[in-house]
Amino acid sequence: MSRPAALAVEKLGKEYRLGAGGHGARAGKSLYETLGGWLGRREKAPASTLIWALRDVDFTVREGEVVGVVGRNGAGKSTLLKILSRITLPTEGRALVRGNLSSLLEVGTGFHPELTGRENIFLNGTILGMRRREIERKFDEIVAFSEVERFLETPVKRYSSGMYVRLAFAVAAHLDADVLLIDEVLAVGDLAFQRKCLGKMESVATSGRTVLFVSHNLGAVRSLCGRVLLFEGGRLDFDGPTEEALERYEAGAATAGETLPRARFVGPLAGEVRFETFELHQTGRTVGVVDPGVPVEIEVVGESAEEYRAIDIAIGIFRDGHRLFSCHDGPTGRPLAAGRFRSRFRLESGTLRPGRYTIGFGATRPGTGEWTWSPEAGAIEVLERWVDGLDARDTGPISVPYRGERLPPGGSGA
């Protein structure tokens, strides 16, 4: 006998109006327009001002399933979770939920800076749907998980950002719900706390609860989920086994020489500093795949809408959703002229081990808080070839230059 459906999504769609028209396609600018919409006489907005964040989405999640949701920025993942959480209403279709549902969409939503950590545990827990008796029962467990016991009576405005997110996640992670929606919560805190969060999510995933897990951390998706929904451009592009879904997802990134039309750049400088293509060069020629035994140059071409006195162009190399390292195009704070630009980054031989990597591109203005970034703009394939100093017994996704020395016993070597 098959398990009943915990989530059932049928022909789901969400349309938004761009510009000053409001939050949704059905938002009006005046009382007359609002009443007209209620009475079915709303003036139709020009097609160019409307965008479908989701369209014709159908899927079912059975009780006890842990399902991953992946897709590039702007694919519709967060809109889906907002509809399921009843934060926003769909334009068409419906989403049915069986049982009690809780969401971890934005860690820390509802925290008050003037209240202490203790007070915010009760405030945030109540906002997330926990009863006071339930919060009291789990209070010690929440505090222990957050590791902020010493500062429990301190207003959270004095917390560091790491302490803040630890306490916020600790509250959210102790929700009891039949259905749990999780959106990128493993991106919070330092590395040690992220591992702790992943362990907590694994215990949730094995507890029999239904989980919908949205993340760019593909390693976590592989670890937690037996099935994945892949979204592209607001539509459900694939629904199936985790490995097949993630292979399709990673294969969708632009490869060397292709334009970057599907990469969505975010941040204040998005649209001002644009990235168009990138190329890979080895031994003076353009290549499509990388030989790990030869230095590789990554060259990106873009265009700046205006001149900047100081700006850094950067790339990031990712594996399974984890950023391995970043590079900048020279000393920080260099000027950038308006018009076309070209930046080059050199990686020594053996830096990237055989396998597939995703590459992000971005720009930042030092000291201003202005930036633009896309972590999934392209992909790099490194050949399965092992050379001297880089053999199959080596572990880890990358090699890094280092210097080591053996010191005499009992001495510092200084």
Helix- and strand-based class?
A: alpha+beta
Relative strand content:
25-35%
Helix content: 10-25%
The CATH topology of the domain at 1-100 and 178-183 and 206-251 is given as Rossmann fold
Distance between the first and last residues' Cα: 71 Å
Main pleated sheet: 6 strands, mixed
Q: For the largest beta sheet, what order do the strands appear in spatially?
A: 5-6-7-3-8-9
Alpha plus pi helix count? 8
- Could you say which overall geometry the principal axes of the C-alpha atoms support? globular
The average pLDDT value, as a whole number, equals: 81
Q: CATH H level of the domain at 1-100 and 178-183 and 206-251: which superfamily?
A: P-loop containing nucleotide triphosphate hydrolases
SSE string, helices as H and strands as E: EHEEHEEHHHEHEHEEHEEEEEEEE
Explain what this protein looks like in three dimensions:
Helices cover 21% and strands 32% of the residues. The protein is of the alpha+beta class and 414 residues long. Among the domains are: 1-100 and 178-183 and 206-251, P-loop containing nucleotide triphosphate hydrolases (Rossmann fold, 3-Layer(aba) Sandwich); 273-382, Coagulation Factor XIII, Chain A, domain 1 (Distorted Sandwich), CATH 2.70.50.60. The strands form four sheets. The chain has a six-stranded mixed sheet, sandwiched between helices. A four-stranded antiparallel sheet has the order 11-10-12-15, with no helix packed on it. α3 (117-127) packs across α4 (132-146) and α3 (117-127) packs across α5. The N and C termini lie far apart (71 Å).
